[in-house]
Amino acid sequence: MDKFEEKIDELNQMSEEDKNSALNQMNEDCICPICPTYNECAKEADELLFCVTGKSKTCITKERGCLCPTCPFAQEYKIGVKYNFYCTRGTELEQR
Ligand code: SF4
Ligand code: SF4
C-alpha cells in the first residue's frame, strides 16, 4: 500500500464528522480553483479534491489542461503525474 492508499484507508476508517474535517483541511492544498479546466459552476458548488472525492458532478465536462502534477497535495502523496484530470476522469484509485 502506498502513501496515498494509506491516506484513503485512514479516511475510510474515520467517523463522518472527522472525515469531513480532514477533507476540509485537505481542500486547502487543492489548486483546482486556479486551473483552466475549473469553472464558475464548480466554484459555486464548492467542488474540490477530485483526486479523492471523484469526478465533478455536472459542472466540469471539458478538459483544458490539468494542474494536478504541480499541486502540493499531489506531490506529498506522489500522485497527479501518471493519472490526473480527476475532475473528469475520476479519483486516483478509480483510474489505477
Ligand atoms: S491533485 Fe488535483 S484534484 Fe487533487 S488536490 Fe491537487 S489539484 Fe486538487
Ligand atoms: S482535477 Fe486537474 S483538470 Fe480538474 S480542475 Fe483540478 S487541476 Fe484542473
Write a short abstract of this structure.
With 96 residues, the protein is an all-alpha fold. The chain has helices spanning 3-12, 16-27, 40-44, 50-53, 72-76, 86-89, 92-95.
List its salient traits:
96 residues, mainly alpha, binds iron/sulfur cluster
Fold blueprint:
Elements: H1 3-12, H2 16-27, H3 40-44, H4 50-53, H5 72-76, H6 86-89, H7 92-95
The protein binds iron/sulfur cluster (SF4) (2 copies).
Major β-sheet, in short? none
How many H/I helical runs?
7
How many beta-strand elements? Answer: 0
Proportion of beta-strand residues = under 5%
How many independent structural domains? Answer: 1
Termini gap: 13 Å
List segments where confidence is low: pLDDT < 50 over at least 5 consecutive residues.
Answer: none
Structural class from helices and strands? mainly alpha
Task: Describe it.
- With 96 residues, this protein is mainly alpha-helical.
- The chain has one domain.
- The chain is 46% helix and 0% strand.
- It contains 7 helices and no strands.
- It is globular.
- The model has no long low-confidence stretch (mean pLDDT 97).
- The structure holds iron/sulfur cluster (2 copies).
- One iron/sulfur cluster (SF4) binds at residues 32, 35, 37-38, 50, 66-68, 84-87.
- One iron/sulfur cluster binds at residues 32, 35, 37-38, 50, 66-68, 84-87.
